[in-house]
Design brief:
Length: about 375
């Protein structure tokens, strides 16, 4: 191929890409406006924990985890926003005899209703909404159990479920509360170095994600240490050029975001997690039949963009294919932008109040 022919072909490719980007941006201007899709800034989040028992606030069980049992857990979470520290939430919550987030202990050999889910079910960011659910659900003959744990997905909930059964917990009704992102989550727990950091903040390096809580007079110094680590190792990926391109081409950015998400099932790591999560869904439905209910709670980005994500649609399809039923929280829970924290992706007290009412309504209507 001659250099002139190569130059022509290259020019055609560049021109085609430019035209495609221009077309996407023009279309973007005429579709209903959506909020900024990049609303999750996890690299700028700092979660600090302490508990009334001392040591790490978390407890590994096999390949998953719960909280330290019979403790009062303290969570302070900060965000670094425009070079300023913002305390997004600061609250206490209880753990029971099984290390789950609720006030009442669990008794063996008692018929129970088990709620499984992630941080939305746990109630991260506010006192647990599960306590409201306990007062208002109609299945009073069943012992209520809050199986919500931060950062977990379906396959991990199956492990927790099986563990409870091994301890002679009798589950008669199962409620699986999920968000779209749970579809690609793997099973995890806390390695030793993270437990060490959680137990003693002075042992934290900065790469632990979950940190011990220093005394108030050492807080700013500690946050500075964590920030120094992240500036060295993580913040570099948010360069000025990348931010400029995001501002100049919001439509292309949105299209690429949804394309990446829709292709996740074809990527090796996510594909493996999806298969495991899909199998957990199948087993829940096969085991409980009409005694399992799935409740799909919308994520913050789905609320802002008025649409269920591709992952969420695939999840819903799996539930239906396996013969299950789900409650559409995108429509029925009534969550709005104001029901979420400003910087964090979790609901605030108002949002959790709506989730409690939504889940209670779903449970009461399903099993009248």
């Amino acid at each position: 191929m001659s250099w002139s022919r190569l130059a022509i072909n290259t020019s055609l490719v560049v021109a085609s890409c430019f035209f495609a980007i221009l077309l996407v941006e023009v279309i973007f201007k005429f579709v209903p406006k959506r909020e900024n899709i990049d609303i999750y800034h996890w690299d700028y989040r700092y979660m600090l924990f302490s508990n009334s028992n001392g040591g790490s606030s978390f407890n590994n069980i096999r390949n998953f985890f719960v909280y330290q049992p019979n403790a009062t857990i303290h969570n302070k979470t900060f965000y670094l926003v425009n070079e300023q520290w913002i305390k997004e939430y600061d609250y206490l919550f209880p753990s029971n005899n099984f290390g789950l987030v609720q006030t009442n202990n669990i008794q063996a050999n008692v018929p129970s209703i088990l709620l499984l889910g992630d941080s939305y079910t746990e109630g991260q960011g506010a006192p647990p909404w599960f306590e409201l659910f306990k007062k208002s659900y109609q299945q009073k003959s069943l012992q209520p159990i809050n199986g919500g744990l931060v950062g977990t997905g379906f396959q991990q909930w199956k492990f927790l479920h099986d563990y409870l059964l091994s301890k002679n917990i009798i589950v008669k009704k199962l409620v699986v509360i999920f968000i779209s992102g749970d579809y690609v989550r793997n099973v995890w727990n806390f390695p030793d170095y993270k437990h060490a950091c959680l137990a003693d903040y002075s042992k934290c390096v900065g790469n632990e994600d979950f940190y011990g809580m220093p005394p108030d007079d050492k807080l700013n110094e500690f946050l500075g240490v964590l920030r120094g680590y992240r500036e060295k190792h993580l913040y570099k990926k948010d360069g000025a050029v990348k931010k400029l391109l995001h501002r100049l081409f919001p439509g292309t950015r949105l299209a690429l975001k949804y394309l990446r998400e829709s292709l996740k099932q074809r990527q090796s790591k996510d594909a493996i997690n999806i298969l495991a999560n899909r199998e957990a869904i199948r087993q829940f439905i096969a085991t409980y039949s009409n005694n399992v209910l799935f409740v799909h709670i919308p994520q913050k980005d789905e609320i802002l963009n008025h649409a269920v994500s591709p992952l969420g649609k695939m999840l819903r399809n799996d539930i239906e294919v396996f013969g299950g039923k789900y409650y559409d929280g995108q429509i029925l829970c009534g969550l709005t932008k104001g029901d979420f924290f400003e910087n964090d992706g979790h609901p605030n007290v108002s949002g959790y109040s709506k989730i409690s009412a939504c889940v209670t309504d779903a449970v009461n209507k399903t099993w009248q």
